[in-house]
Amino acid sequence: MTGGPLIEARGLGKRYGDKRVLDSLDFEVDRGSFMLVTGPNGSGKTTLLRLCAGLAVPTAGELEVRAPRETIGFAGHEPLVYRELTAIENLDLYGRLYRVPERRERIGMLLERFGLWQARSQRAGSFSRGMQQRLSLCRALLHEPDLLVLDEPYSGLDDAGAELLDRELADLRAGATFVVSTHDPDRVLPLASTRLAFA
Amino acid sequence: MRRYAADVAVLARKDLTLELRARDTLPAMLLFVVSTLVVFHFALPKDSSDLAAKGLLWVAIVFTALVGLTRAFVAEREQGLIDGLLLAPCDRSAIWLAKSASVLAFLGLAELVALPAYAAFFSGIGWSTILAVLLADIGMVTVGTLLAAVAAVSRTRELILPLLFLPLAIPVVIGGVGASVVDDSGRYLGFLCLYDAVFAIISWASFEYVVTE
Description:
The complex is a heterodimer. By secondary structure, chain A is of the alpha/beta class. Chain A contains six helices and eight strands, in the order E-E-E-H-E-E-H-H-H-E-H-E-H-E. The mean pLDDT of chain A is 91. Chain B has helices at residues 2-22, 26-43, 50-72, 74-78, 81-87, 92-121, 127-152, 157-181, 186-211. The longest helix of chain B has 30 residues, at 92-121. Classes of the chains: A alpha/beta, B mainly alpha.
């Protein structure tokens, strides 16, 4: 593992055609820290998180993410689960691709923890929005990532689900690095070590 | 290499499972190819040459492949699932290879019905035609899967796939028809092999750049 911050951005910019989404952004995310990203809709939060997760490449400046792909966990607006596959099949698919050791036990533990064990054999397409979001979080945590990139992780969750996520984030806080965007910053503010606010 | 093959197998199995559950690609391809051959059977004059009939077979095959390719990335496109696959620590070309393998399987199954149907409606099919169909399938699927990925991330996806795919399928039709109608088909089969190799390498190497924003 190399030294220095886990994520380092210098003059970071991203354009989609003529539309400039991010412009000359500088920031660092240290290992083990929690960066909270806030801002109104359309301010570039999602684009920034996609860049950090390696789903997009910058069009200007530099972005160095010193974490290999297998150590990054990402949950975004879409649950990234196949509707035609069951909860357990979805996690098994990702578990195989990530080479998760003791995959079945890990999947069972996560489904239990996120309250989806009873629904494990149901197709994800039959899940409510909140259940899909829980499954998405299971997917993001499946390989025990060192860097967690969470884009609006509370969206779609009911109170019980949100409290569950609070507990998970608090438990993981000591071991992982976080980049989290949310419209409800008060919820994760106690965990955050830095804040990047878009105007 | 074993890891790469394992990733391809996992992804291809996922695609086959999805089709088994949803059943929306293969039935569409079967219906399309059979109905096209029926239409051609009645549209073609009785005294038409074997060359004309073989040409129509290849038209049916190319458009059946297009039907399959149009559906190739539907699940990934509609639910943004391509992100989930891109996040995984597998070589991104494995996604292309697995998707190509599943589309090839669907196209092969459609042709298992289409070729006997052609033989029943028009004339018998020789081994050179069957070999040409196999080689053409590989070529169309390799390049078509790459183009389907391009189309999946484009806003004009319904338009862009045929616009990109059909011109690139012209050499396949030329090679396929040639191999089907001449006595010495070796030259045309060799041409199809070359097409497959060139476009497989290009598609394999460029897939990652096509799907990354």
